[in-house]
Amino acid sequence: MWKGPRKVEDYRDVERPTKSRRLVNSKSSCPTTHEFLSFNDGNLPDWLLIEVLCRLPIKSIFRFKCVSKCWNSIISHPSFRRFYISRASASALPWGFLLKRIHVEGSKMANFPKHKLLENKISDGTLLSSPHASVLALPNSHKAKGPLYYIKAADNGVVLYGWFDLDRRSFNDATEYFICNPITKQWLAIPDPKHCTRRASFGFITQVDEEGILRSFKLVLVHCPCTSKIQNFLEFEVFSSETGKWVEHIVHSPCTVRVSHNKKAFVMEGNLHWDDCELGVIAYDPYNSPDKFRIIEFPHVDTEGNKSRYMCGGHLGRLKYFEVGRMFKPQGFSHLKIWALEDYSSNNWYLQHIVRKEDIMVDNNLGSSQHI
């Protein structure tokens, strides 16, 4: 019985077949040497099959799992995954582009191009002109016709899709969630949360092992009250792939907190992050500390009575704060500033970049605020 492929360092101990060598006459002055591999039972040994498979594209390997039970066992074994990743580590990692929004034929939103996703083609044909382009087929669902599917988040190569029902009166913009692996084209439907009709923001975070294999994921909804309502707590609703259930967590805060429903979370340092609009960045760890959150205060900048626009995100392992200083029209914005957090465990920011409008203007084309 096959017990899985050996580790890479163990391959040198495998007994190899005897090589026979012969000279073949040719018209050239130099003879040609051919090598032949022969096996007693006539079957291809596992070690040679592994050597061949690990040189193939990942999509082909997934298809070859259907060849036989033996091939499926070899490809599915963790040792093969380690060997494949070790060989591919020296080359570039696979990557690709995903459309953020894909319009399905029959939707009432006419301001998007009517890409016929269900027919696996795009009407204008420009996107799929490359042989490397493909379309992700939607899961078989009775809700698949008519609505709008779009990407809500992505982490470690796994994509969270949201389904938008135009006919449903809901505060939450997505009424159904799907997890998708673009490489294997596998879809997983997420059960409805307990409070699916509430206004909410969301976050998506995954955990992978040392080989990059997905171990688990969590989908987090933060229920957002109306802007006029003041509260000193946040209501989190967390779905775990390990349990397949939603769990509610009410986390209190010594100060008033508020998360806007149109703010998307980003992942950094194993935490999900939302901005509070006033206090700073809310850091939440659904894996290790689901019953508490941390507030990272914004840098102390003069917003001139909320005349500035800003955004937060993670870049190159650091938390960044991007500010667009605004002035009264028609002058438009005055400057661009980027602040970086010195250390993730602290609240110390430093000004990393500053660009004034005069430094980047060309023929006054950046004078209007509509460009920012």
From TrEMBL:
Q: Do you know which InterPro entries this protein is assigned to?
A: At3g26010-like (IPR055290), Beta-prop_At3g26010-like (IPR056592), F-box-like_dom_sf (IPR036047), F-box_dom (IPR001810)
Superkingdom in the source lineage: Eukaryota
- Note one Pfam family from the annotation: b-prop_At3g26010-like
| Record-linked CDD domains | F-box_AtFBW1-like
Annotated ranges, domain F-box: 38-83
Gene3D superfamilies for this protein: 1.20.1280.50
Q: Which SUPFAM superfamilies does the record cross-reference, listed alphabetically?
A: F-box domain (SSF81383)
| The name this protein goes by in its record | F-box domain-containing protein
Q: What organism is the protein native to?
A: Cinchona calisaya
